[in-house]
Every structure is written in structure tokens, then in C-alpha cells.
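DATA SHEET
Item: assembly model
Revision: 1
Owner: S.N.
Input lines:
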Amino acid sequence: MLYLLLFFAAPALIMVLASFRSPGEFGGLAPLVDENGRFDLNVESYMRFFTEAVYAQIFVKSFVVATATTLLCLLLAYPLAMLIATSQKKHRDLLLLLVILPFWSNFLIRVYAWMIVLGPQALLARTLNAVLGWFGAGPVPLLFSSFAVLVCLVYVHLPFMVLPLYANLEKHDQSLLDAAQDLGANAWQRFWRVTFPLSLPGVYAGAALVFIPALGIFAIPDILGGPDDSLIGNVIKQQFLETRDWPFGSVLSIVLTVVALGIAGLAAWIGSRGTRREAADA
Amino acid sequence: MRRRSSWLRMAAIAGYAFLYLPLVIVVVYSFNDSRLNAEWVGFTLDWYRKLAHNEEMQTAAANSLLIGLVASVVSTVLGTMAGVAMRRYRLKLLPILVLTPIAIPEILMGVSLLIFFVLLNFTLGLLSVALAHIAFCIGFVAIVVRSRLAGMDESLTEAARDCGATPLQTFRFVTLPLIMPGVIAGALMAFTLSIDDFVITFFTAGAGTVTLPLQIYSMIKIAVTPEVNAVSTLLMLLTLVLIVVASKLSPSLLRSREES
């Protein structure tokens, strides 16, 4: 049993090692490009990352896009999760399944679907541009734009936000809301002063689940974005497959890993603090 | 209260529409008698007929199926063991090893595996893709199996040991049958994940090896044609069937265990 355990652990461990090996290749040109200077370790690629502002800018941009995605997902997911949590028990499983189902269809198909929806000859673009035409504004391309990238990012990550939110909202005690109502709170106050603060652990969990993958995405900007919509994932892909500057690509990957794990850790920490406080309150 | 709940219902309906309309459009246009995915012209099966003669697509589909089968079988075996081990031994490192590939952005795993294979002079192709898929599927299988184990009565394995069963016998005749629904669900999940994976495959396939998602990617990079809608529809149907089977299978297995 233990032997087999090691047998399983080995490939995974080698994978982790490989990701750490890459910094060992700095300066020593990437294996495919040149063979000389293998042990010539240096931090040139790191220097390059910290001195050339372009890359920091792309990181910031990826951050902004991922944040916007997370907020929009939250905005859309909240009513969905709340509806599922407050609906009758027998309908809940079905409603939840309906949220998860699109997630199981191929990722590329979901991106492709937006190519069609936002396409220049599709109904949406024609209607929008006709309306803009009345106001004298020029036609706006929907496809191959930051707008397309953002919409698709939200679309792809929505279930990740709904699930933890639902898991949290479902546990809420209805009597708290009744109490608030008895004390004269209106619907809006009941939501902001009772439901929302209680749902924060779910919000944080969902935010981490959306933010981290959104940060590293490359296929969506690649397919739906214009030339200016590249995010950090696209730069990493470009460094590995086109420029073939592996040391620099590795530096970018490692920075992304550190950021992603940092955020995951932060979310876990906030989550555990939240549950501890709940336990203390109980 | 009533006003608010109808408001909530509207927002939720909009949410569901947002989730489903794009996919419905893909399916509907796969039967559309027009090259443009813009307007409904008339019903046709031409795109499916074209697909049936597309050899590249068939090779890609065969590759995807092969990789999916290999990856799901191997990752189910390894993932089950990982799940059992995570439950039985309080290992610090194992959960980290199993869960990290799930937590970090996919692209990172893709590029690290690319470096790994190239440095080992491992030819990029079907095998490297299968190995990569196994690596990321293990975590998902392990999670499903572990959650199944968490609901298991520990005293059953203890009873088996008391009756003189070896650890292997205990696993084979007590633990494994009990966690079987979880194992099967994990296997189906691994198969779906493997068939659907684009990012990690993109980096580990090298030139010349094509899977269905890679084929779809290269097609939509060139042009939008309803042929893509047709493949997409078939692929969605396959995934849907697998999910339905998985969800039907595991509760029914669960019930039969409880009855016996």
C-alpha cells in the first residue's frame, strides 16, 4: 500500500520539482535553444521582470480583469444562489444541477458560444449598433474586445461562485430574518445587515475560486480578445511556445504561482478565521 | 417580502438565461443551413455529414478517447489510493501534493510539465498528454473518494481486522465495495476532465498530436464554421450522458449497498 502510495507520489513530486527546476535554467539558455552554460545560474530573468515595466503592467492588468470578473460573478451569482437556497427542498438539487451542467461542457465550446453570440453579424451586435446609429455613434465591434473577454470570463467562472455561496446561504437560520423583521428591518436592511454579513465566508471562498483561475487564463483573451487584451497567461504562453525564452517564462510562471498560492492561502485564512468566530459565537 | 422574492426570481432567471442561451445557440446553429452563425435559414444535417467525412476530426476524437480511457483508469487507481491514504495516515505532504494541481491556474501545470518532458528528452505526444492528464485527474478522484470515505463507518474495517482479514483483504472485501460509488463517480469525472482538457493538453501535446479540444481550437482560430457547432453538440451530448450515468449510477449503487 505504502509502496503504491510512493509510486503515486513520485510523478506528482517530479512535477513539482520540475516547476522548481526551471529557475535553475536561468541565464543558461533554454535547453532547446542552446546547450552551453548550463550551470551558469543568474538572476537576469528576474532582473528583467522587475526592470521592464511592461510585465508589471500586464500583471496589474490581469489583476484588474480578474477582480472585475470576481465582482461581476458575485453580482450574478448571489441572486442565483439565494433563489436556490430559498426554494423548496425538492427543487434545490435540480436548480443546482442546472448551474453546474454548463460547467461540464467543454471549455472551448463555451468560449466558442460567445464568439457566435458576440459575432458581428449576430443579432446582439446588429441591434446594438443600430441603436448606437440612432444616437450618431459609430458601430462598435463586440467580438475581439476587452468586453468579450470579460463577459466570457464571467460566464466560465460563474458556477465556482454560485456553489460556495449556495453552500453558505443554505445553512442560514430563517429565524434570524424573522427576528430582524419583527424588530422593524425592511427587506433591504435584512439583506445588508443579516444575510450578507453571514454569507461572507461563502463570498470569500467563491472569490478565491474565481479569482485564481481567472488570473492565469490564456485561452479566452487568445480567442475573444483583440491584440491589446493579452493577459499574463498569454505572455507566459508566448514565452514558452513562441519566443521560447524559457527562463523568463518560468520567472513569470513562478510569480503567478506565488500570487495564486498567496491568494488561496489568504482566502483559507479568512475562511478559518470566519468559522472560528462562528464557533466562538455559538 | 413578496415583491422582493419576485425580484429575486427575475434576477435568477436572467442568470440561468445567461448560462444557457449561448449553448442553446451553438446547438441550434449546428442544424442551420448557412455558413454564417448569424441567422436561422433552414434545417440541415449537412454539418454533421461533413463531420463524418472529416478525417482529422476523427483522428482527434480517437486520440481523445484513448487518452481519456488511459487517464481515467490510471488516475482512478492512483487517486483512490491517494484518497484512502489521505484518510488513513495523517500525512502533511500528500494533501498538498494532491490538491495543489487543482488550486493553481492550469497554465502553470501545463508549462511545468512541458519543461519537465523536454528536459527528460521525453517525446511530446499521446503518452506525455496521458501522463499529464493522469497527474491532474488524481486530485479530483482523491477528493471524491476521500469524501466517500468520510461517511464510512470506521468500525467495519476494524471488525474485518478482528475477524482475521489481512489489510489487503480488508481493503478488497470491505473498504473497496463500500467506496465503489465514489470510485466510479471519480472515474467518470476523470474521463470527462481528460476529454475536455484544453490548456494542459495544449502545452504537452507537441506538434502533430491532436485531441478534440485542440482540433476545435485550431478550427475556431481560423474561422467560425457550423462544423464546430456540430462537434460541440456531439461532445456536449457525450458529456451530458456521462454525467447523467454517473449521477444515476452512484445513488443507485449506494441504495443497493444499504439494502444488502
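QC remark: Residues 246-281 of chain A form the longest helix (36 residues).
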